[in-house]
Description:
This protein has helices spanning 8-11, 25-39, 51-58, 64-73, 90-96, 152-165, 182-198, 227-237, 242-246, 248-267, 323-334; strands spanning 97-100, 107-112, 130-135, 175-180, 204-208, 280-285, 307-312. By secondary structure, the chain is α/β, with parallel strands linked by helices. It has 2 domains: 8-78, no CATH class; 90-334, Alpha/Beta hydrolase fold, catalytic domain (Rossmann fold, 3-Layer(aba) Sandwich), CATH 3.40.50.1820. The protein has a 7-stranded mixed sheet with strand order 1-3-2-4-5-6-7, sandwiched between helices. β4, α7 (182-198) and β5 (204-208) form a beta-alpha-beta unit. The longest helix has 20 residues, at 248-267. Residues 1-24, 36-49, 59-66, 71-79 and 340-358 have low confidence and may be disordered. Its EC number is 3.1.2.22. It is an enzyme of class 3 (hydrolase). Residues 109-320 form the Thioesterase domain.
Amino acid sequence: MGVSGSKGCCMCCVPDKALMACGPAVPIAKELHSESAQVAPSGHGVHHKGLGEAIQARTRCISACAVRCIHDHLPGHRHDHMKAPAVMREEEAKKWLLVKRKDFARVRMVCFPYAGGNSNFYKTWDFKETEMVLVELPGRNARYNEKAMTDVYSIAKKIASALDAVGYLKSKIPLVFFGHSFGAIVSTLVAQVLRNQYNYTPKHLIVSGCVPLHMRAGRPKFSVPNDNDLVTSLLDMGGITKEMAKNRDVVSQFLPALKGDYLAVDKYVYHEAEPLACPILALGSDQDMRVPQQETAEWARFTAGEFESRIFPGGHFFLKPLEKDVIAYISSVIFKDMTGPGAMALPGFILFDPNKVE
């Protein structure tokens, strides 16, 4: 027996009695917690990687709205906007955000890495009048000795706090988010956290090489017990070279972060949310083994604004060999509504430059 798809109980803060519109949400939450308490170590409760599967198994005939209510009624799980945003010190924030300074920048692009990746992937990226902000997650580069985080929502909240701590949310320079694969999941969640907790919306969200969030349920797990299988899968996708795969020192450097990120994806539970106000650009490729190109257009449901998508030739890591083409295309999109020297001439657009004297 299904439940009507009312959004009210999941999209705003309401008393528990109002959750009756979501049917068995509260009873199922209590039942899951009771069961997990019998098998989980003391203090762990329902915080285990089977949480998403448990909820989905009990809610096959219940709306996505009810699923969210069940999740939020589990101890320790509440709506983002029911809590005050965490405050991060600027020194801590700078560990999360590596900045490539650019004078007179009109845009800041925040780049989120793929699973197991780090800020190095984006260090060669260069956009005119754009300051690059590279996200560095725990467990890589200078943060190698820090344990990788395995919850995408916690990661998103940390990054949102970092962006606030360095003053970007109050700056006149708008933010553009770019995330590839795992980074697309995190960047989307960061945009939602900023909307819910900080009343901030980025200028543009660009997602690349990633299954839309609402379509992730039922997909094969990324985590596997055999490390060699993990390395082989990354090699097959083009994420590393054969030489890197054979080098144990290199593998030992990225494997802990990769395993942490994969676990975060496997634990991820999709929460239906209001569409973002910012435009979304979705990029895909025609030979990606993990993201069928026809699914790229499904990202449209996550924005109430403009949506564009484009399919490039290549596999999952098409960004590297096509770096110049991708940068040129992204530039044409994010600058098309901005006048002045940084705006790019596009077919069908007449750009007025107030600094140019005829």
